[in-house]
């Protein structure tokens, strides 16, 4: 347990590239929003600030296996501990990212809206339809979705450099490019996104994300086993 | 206890270890020797559980090692292992976060003895100093089995001496099994207690270092006399110069006489004699 906590602590500390990207994106957008909408009072609807933070768990899912794996093992970490600790890291990251986004949604966005000439901000809680289910449900819906994205990014990153990694990349591209133009296949794609994002029942969406996230994450055991240090 | 039981490791068509068996049941410093590509790193990685065996099994304290069942007792340091770019003091704390048995104060003490500035970040260090940090992390890991792959690569002679002294001190303080793979044979000769030589993925020799002093020697003299004197002995190599011949022996001692001389064989010469011959098939010697 102490080891897992230690690995989570290191993972959270050593995710600087992810923090840097999100930080730059967030601060430049924030500055741009203040100048264009609040000071100059230009333009119509904008994108809510919190949306930019939502890519943090995804980026952590890429950078942790890419940058931290070998270094953690060189410090004496075991592969199975890395597997267990990363999931805890992503749960922590998804939890706090969602929390901060909610705070921004409820505290900062209303302030910006009052200063806008045409008050309208696109927030992913609204776009995904989470907002209509109430605050608590919206929180867990976004949390589950972010956890799914980080788990998928984690497993795909670990698999890169192996044949099944390239196969997974090719399959994802093929599914998007082949499924989209063909109506019956597109319906499958719509069904999939409906399950993980747009479902009317919050519980179904949350469960779909959690089950799929855990399944994809467990598939990451195969590349973890084979990955060179 | 470490056990390799008929272990074969293949990378595609390349056989890195071929039916390798050995049992290590005594703590101490083991010198692992072999030519480039002999299978040393593969052996260490199998023992650390970083890679699975293609055939046979590797066990530490009767538990089979595997990538998802890496032995808790083992710490492995690879050549040129990358570390987080932190200040050394923070890096040692991070090692303690990952491994509760890690001794931070001992690591700091070792860093001081190696004259490492613990306020420097890892990337600010030279190649040799980075290797030193990796070695310190292993020595302070508190594990009972340390696997050091080329630990002195990039060390200057003074640092190498400090390293071997520390290794001895560390093993005296708390008995542990340390397997050191190196190409700088003469220096490890003074420190190591046992020797493992592998060639072409097979175990060529596993013995106490004292056995080398007792059984490895060179007989030089007139060809006919040398051949006659060494008949029936285990000749591991032979060199000729005119009518004279030198035979390298690993067997019971013989005494010199007027027709030939008998001289001690250093570990480097013994190793080269044993595995230097391209015709050698990596067969074990008795």
Describe this protein's structure:
Chain A has one domain (2-226). Chain A has 11 helices and 2 strands; from the N terminus they run H-H-E-H-H-H-E-H-H-H-H-H-H. Chain A has helices at residues 2-13, 16-39, 50-53, 56-74, 79-115, 124-127, 135-159, 163-179, 183-198, 202-219, 221-226, and strands at 46-47, 121-122. Chain A has a two-stranded parallel sheet with strand order 1-2. The longest helix of chain A has 37 residues, at 79-115. Chain A starts with a helix and ends with a helix. The radius of gyration of chain B is 21 Å and the shape is globular. Chain B has 9 helices and 14 strands. In chain B, the strands form 3 sheets. In chain B, strands 6-7-8-3-9-10 form a 6-stranded mixed β-sheet, sandwiched between helices. A 4-stranded antiparallel β-sheet of chain B has the order 2-1-4-5, covered by helices on one side. With 286 residues, chain B is of the alpha/beta class. Chains A and B meet through helix 1, helix 4, helix 5 and helix 11 of A and helix 2 of B.
Features:
heterodimer; A: 229 residues; mainly alpha; two-stranded parallel ribbon; 11 helices; 2 strands; globular; B: 286 residues; alpha/beta; Rossmann fold; 2 domains; 6-stranded mixed β-sheet; 4-stranded antiparallel β-sheet; 31% helix; 31% strand
């Amino acid at each position: 347990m102490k080891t897992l906590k230690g690995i989570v602590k290191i993972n959270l500390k050593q995710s600087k590239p992810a923090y840097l990207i999100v930080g730059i994106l967030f601060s430049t957008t924030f500055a741009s929003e203040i100048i264009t909408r609040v000071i100059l009072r230009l333009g119509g609807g904008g994108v809510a600030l919190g949306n930019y933070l939502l890519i943090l768990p995804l980026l952590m899912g890429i950078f942790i296996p890419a940058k931290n794996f070998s270094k953690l093992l060189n410090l004496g970490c075991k592969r199975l501990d890395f597997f267990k600790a990363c999931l805890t890291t992503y749960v922590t990251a998804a939890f706090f990212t969602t929390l901060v986004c909610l705070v921004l949604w409820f505290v900062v966005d209303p302030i910006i809206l009052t200063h806008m000439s045409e008050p309208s901000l696109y927030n992913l809680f609204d776009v995904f339809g989470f907002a209509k289910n109430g605050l608590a449900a919206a929180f867990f819906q976004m949390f589950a979705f972010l956890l799914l994205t980080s788990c998928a990014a984690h497993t795909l990153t670990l698999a890169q450099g192996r044949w099944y990694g390239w196969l997974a990349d090719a399959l994802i591209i093929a599914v998007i490019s082949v499924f989209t133009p063909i109506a019956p296949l597109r319906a499958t794609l719509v069904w999939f996104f409906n399950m993980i994002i747009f479902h009317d029942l919050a519980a179904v969406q949350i469960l779909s994300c959690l089950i799929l996230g855990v399944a994809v994450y467990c598939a990451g055991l195969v590349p973890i086993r084979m990955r060179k240090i | 206890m470490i056990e390799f039981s008929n272990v074969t490791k293949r990378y595609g068509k390349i056989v890195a270890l071929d039916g390798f068996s050995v049992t290590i049941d005594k703590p101490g410093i083991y010198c692992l020797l072999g030519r480039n590509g002999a299978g040393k790193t593969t052996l260490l990685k199998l023992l650390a559980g970083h890679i699975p065996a293609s055939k046979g099994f590797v066990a530490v304290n009767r538990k089979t090692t595997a990538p998802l069942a890496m032995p808790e007792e083992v710490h492995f340091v690879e050549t040129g292992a990358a570390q987080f770019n932190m200040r050394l003091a923070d890096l040692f704390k991070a090692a303690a976060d990952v491994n509760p048995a890690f001794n931070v104060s001992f690591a700091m003490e070792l860093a001081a003895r190696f004259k490492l500035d613990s306020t420097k970040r890892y990337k600010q260090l030279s190649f040799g100093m980075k290797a030193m940090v990796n070695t310190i992390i292993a020595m302070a890991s508190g594990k009972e089995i340390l696997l050091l792959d080329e630990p002195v690569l990039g060390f200057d002679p003074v640092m190498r001496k400090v390293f071997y002294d520390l290794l001895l001190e560390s093993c005296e303080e708390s008995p542990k099994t340390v397997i050191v793979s190196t190409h700088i044979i003469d220096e490890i000769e003074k420190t190591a207690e046992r020797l493992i030589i592998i060639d072409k993925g097979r175990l060529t020799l596993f013995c106490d270092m004292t056995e080398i002093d007792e059984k490895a020697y060179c007989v030089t003299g007139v060809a006919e006399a040398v051949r006659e004197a060494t008949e029936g002995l285990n000749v591991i190599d032979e060199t000729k110069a005119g009518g004279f011949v030198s035979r390298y022996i690993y067997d019971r001692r013989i005494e010199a006489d007027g027709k030939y001389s008998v001289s001690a064989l250093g570990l480097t010469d013994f190793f080269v004699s044993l595995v230097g011959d391209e015709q050698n098939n990596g067969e074990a010697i008795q």
